[in-house]
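Sample intake sheet
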Amino acid sequence: MSTIRDDLKELIDTLSERQVLALWRVAASMRPSEMLTPDEAARVDQALKEIETGDFVDWSDLKRVL
């Protein structure tokens, strides 16, 4: 019997790296032991907006440059 946790792990494997990063940021912000400061929350919001608009450098592109 599959659990929601198992289903989520399978779903994550189908996501792009930028989607995984966005999901990680959202999930990390929900962790009770890590409360975000208002500045950190604003930076996460800004990063998510940049990801949504495509304003980022893809890891594979960065590796080629480096």
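Comment: DSSP finds four helices and no strands in the chain. The mean pLDDT is 86.
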